[in-house]
Amino acid sequence: MPDQTYWQRHEEACDRGDFTYEDPETGYVVFTKLGLLDRDRCCGAGCRHCPFDHDNVKFEARARKIQQAAWLTEVRPDPDHDVTVIFWSGGKDSYLAYRALLKAGQTNLVLLTTFDARSRIIAHQEFMIDDVVEQAKCLNVPLIGVPLHSGVDHTDQIVQALDLVPQCRQLSFGDLHLQHIRNWREETFGAHPGTSRLQLSFPLWNADYSALLADLLSSGRESIVSAVSADVQDVKVGDRFDAAFIARLPDHIDAFGENGEFHTRIVFE
How many CB atoms lie within 10 A of CB 93? Predict the structure, then answer.
């Protein structure tokens, strides 16, 4: 393994004012953001350090090409009203949070999804960013994709994505009851200068599971298991998440998989 990540190599090259650097893993010569800025516009190739928000990458190719945060759908939020950005995994919890916000009268929403910059897979959910793009299109809601790179601070990459939504005033999460996760979010985003001004919301916090399940079923959307923890023997990928599924779960498994026992994907026909 190289002693530096390509991102560290890039930052050092920029500090020197270099237009290129050598990728420590492949040996390829890569343009820095300085070298790309010298072009004055996005070339549409999905460059690793594109400073132009991938403006000229065709929308149908963005899910597989972008290397920086960018819009993955053509629809945009209303620029004249405050925006709530929902951290969207493509699973039941984020979908139910979205529905809760709509019921509360918040309609100027943007979905934000992070995924691995190399595999294009959403962490934990184990499905591709392409699936989330299709979800956003079905909902007709704006979507920002954030490809995560190793060697770069996670929150910094989120903040770069939020620069695309200057009217964002609130970040919303589908957390149910894990206090340490909520504490981490509040501490992390509260301390970062790029997000400290934003309100954080948890519309599903301590919500009744029966009510959540009823809302999911009333939505007409199907939720299927997309990933299962290695130590869980009673759940399989492809299982439908519904009342019958919950009823057969052993007592030690959280009914909504909140402890990471399983993850889901919302299916849009």
Answer: 24
The C-alpha atoms of residue 86 and residue 268 are separated, in whole angstroms, by 18
**Rounded to 5°, angle at Cα 257 from 256 and 260:** 155
Nearest-CA neighbor of 89 among 97, 78, 80, 81? 97
Model-level pTM? 0.93
Whether residue 165 contacts residue 83, with contact meaning beta carbons closer than 8 Å, is answered with yes
Residue 81, number of CB atoms within 10 A of its CB = 11
pLDDT digits (tens, 9 = 90+) for 77-96: 999 999 999 999 999 999 99
The DSSP 8-state label assigned to residue 128 in this structure reads: B
Beta-bridge mates of residue 20: 31
Alpha-carbon distance of 114 to 19, in angstroms, equals 28
Structure tokens at 115: 């995924």
pLDDT tens for residues 5-25? 888 999 999 999 999 999 998
Q: What is the CA radius of gyration of the chain?
A: 20
How far is the C-alpha of 71 from the C-alpha of 230, rounded, in Å?
34
Q: Which two tokens stand for residue 61?
A: 């190719």
Report the relative pairing of strands 143-148 and 70-71 from DSSP bridges: antiparallel
Q: How far apart are CA 199 and CA 44, in angstroms?
A: 35
Distance CA 260, CA 232 (A): 10
Alpha-carbon span 176 to 192, nearest angstrom: 24
